[in-house]
Predict the structure.
Amino acid sequence: MSDYRYPYQDGIFVLNELIGLEQICHQAGLDDVADGLAEAILDEATKMGSEQLAPLNRVGDSTGATLKDGQVHETPGFSDAYRHFCEGGWPSLGADPEFGGQGLPAALAVAVNEVWQSANLAWSLCPLLTQGAIESISAHGSDQLKQQYLPKLISGEWTGTMNLTESDAGTDLAALKTRAVRDGDHYRITGQKIFITWGDHQMTDNVVHLVLARLPDAPAGVKGISLFLVPKFLLDENGNTTDQRNDAYAVSLEHKLGIHGSPTCVMSFGDNDGAIGYLIGEENKGLACMFTMMNDARQGVGLQGLAISERAYQQALTYAKERIQGTLRDGSRISIIKHPDVRRMLMQMKSCTQAMRALTYVAKAESDQHAAETDPAVKAKRKARVDLYTPIVKGWITELSQEITYLAVQVHGGMGFIEETGVAQHYRDARILTIYEGTTGIQALDLIGRKTLADGGEALSALIAEINSDMSEITDPKLQSVVTSMQESLSNAISAQQWILDKAAKDANVAGAVSVHFMMLLGYLCGGWLMAKSANRALSLQAEEGADQEFLESKIVCARFYAEQMLPRTVSSLNAIYSGDESTMALSEDQF
């Protein structure tokens, strides 16, 4: 197994040269971060990720979590790593200073999160879900709930979970059966939830569950769902954890294909007197509250797709350099990185991870710009762009991660199929990413329905116009092939959008039949856009004294490879859109 280190040069390049972290920091009044603190933060995160979390990744895969006497026990070593994580102040990085957070830009926080997720994906799910809980409570919780729960969630003293799914109600949340009954200033929750990530553990003295449930007099469907905060241990009048256990327990652990170090729990609420819960937001408005948490988590899962791809790429690269196989005409033995097809696979992995990184960071930077904006009209456009990015980040990147981790196994040849090399773990771990927090199909339907059809394509047209404008500014002949490929892909995106706007109004099946093709087309387009911008910036930087010519040239080469090898996929996506609605719906159920 190879070691892991955060790709510092590329990360800093995206932060500084592509999204303008310095300007974002100045807008937020964070001048010290703009003056080099960001680099120091990433350097320290890299140390913790490579030295403490990465060595535990294989341990989590082979050992995993266990359930004993009604309590989940995490992988050995995870608790110590979490303690160091909290001592370093990492949980509070991007959180609100009013409740103990450091208030740093989300764009910097997402770069730091990439470190944790690449180093140890299963472990990183715990702070990821906590961040989502913080977002939801911050946006919708009462002042009392904020004061009681946010400081310790932000410090990492407590962790958070998201409880949506039930055995009879997967994506169909309208069918959930968990019930909530009013009981004075709180509610009694009864029901069972499945697939609850880090639903229980011993790393902290409390776990804060966010639970969707239905009141007895609630309207039918999703309009009758409420959101409740249900702590593992109840609090005293001073907001401190007591030894009074709430009626909320993990009753079993799922046996999974991957992420074995992350305990995926079946949670039972109210088997005795009913779990005590506190309303977040308004009654029957819980889905909107939960979407705050879900959208944060969806971008986080997209980041996981990048993170596991980067980890797989690093391992494949190390193996390709070390594995001796084949001879030259003079009889000398060579490493497999000299084989053209191995280089093709490595180039695809390298260029795609760079495109994925650029998109995840740019999408999160849009959240910073939205938060800082004061003009209502511009702020609304920023919000629309954030919403548009979210399903693309989650859907396209996690789908692409399946291919990148597959290539990592392929580079290893037969040894990739052997668990001891460790690369198979990345392939297995990545498989969940297209499923949890909304499957690829759900992301694609969200993109085509809520983010395209709902506004007549306004937000998407604005993005396409920006991409087109950026391409018109790239004039160096060295990037002509990149611009040409991007212009063709832009044309494909415009054609796809117009076809969908025209057809969906006449046929209800169109959106569902072609949505994934549409999402993948836009993903490849966004990746190409940001790779082209990066290459153009790299060309400019090459003229500066002391520039790292080798790194900058690799940015240009990767952009050309991506444009020539990956952007043509927008053509096949467009063709699939043109025919997808008819061929998808052509067979009867009995013909399948």
